[in-house]
Design brief:
Blueprint lengths: L3 E2 L6 E2 L14 H18 L1 H17 L3 H8 L1 H21 L31 E5 L9 E5 L8
Antiparallel strand pairs: 1-2, 3-4
Length: 154
């Protein structure tokens, strides 16, 4: 039997003859990499699996709502690194948005609830159908209807 190179660690291993096309060795790290690769491919290809994973992630986040806050407190170096990388992504996105006629493409960073279009009364004055499409936050686009409501009917 011929040795095969592992896709993850690059080491050579003797494949199990019962496996059709082995690409990963039996090390724990490589098995985890194989599972992660399978899961990424499954999420891309199967909408039901993707919806189930999203629902499970949302349920986990509800139960562990303080996890990320605690993580950032316990790992300040990682939090700083993430902030620096996010700052770089934001700058890159802003520079990309400069060619946009409205100049807004690079400035929208998941601020879907903020409205700066104010009329003379200080209230928002727009209505119609809008697509809420976050740039950074990973969530689905949502079509909404927004209607202006008069302040009083006197």
């Amino acid at each position: 039997m011929e040795e095969v190179s592992c896709c993850h660690c690059g080491g050579y291993f003797l494949p199990d003859p019962r496996q059709k096309n082995p690409r990963y060795c039996r090390k724990l790290e490589c098995r985890r990499a194989r599972k992660a690769a399978w899961q990424r491919a499954k999420i891309r290809a199967d909408p039901d699996y993707r919806a189930n994973q999203k629902r499970c992630w949302q349920d986990w986040c509800k139960v562990h709502s303080a996890y990320w806050k605690e993580y950032r407190q316990k790992h300040p170096d990682q939090a700083k690194r993430n902030r620096d990388l996010q700052r770089m992504r934001n700058t890159k996105r802003r520079n990309r948005g400069r060619g946009d006629p409205a100049g807004m493409k690079g400035l929208m960073i998941a601020k879907m609830d903020s409205s700066k279009c104010l009329g003379s009364s200080g209230r928002a004055t727009f209505s119609g159908q809008f697509w809420l499409v976050p740039v950074i936050a990973k969530m689905d686009a949502l079509k909404v209807n927004i209607y202006g409501i008069p302040a009083s009917c006197e």
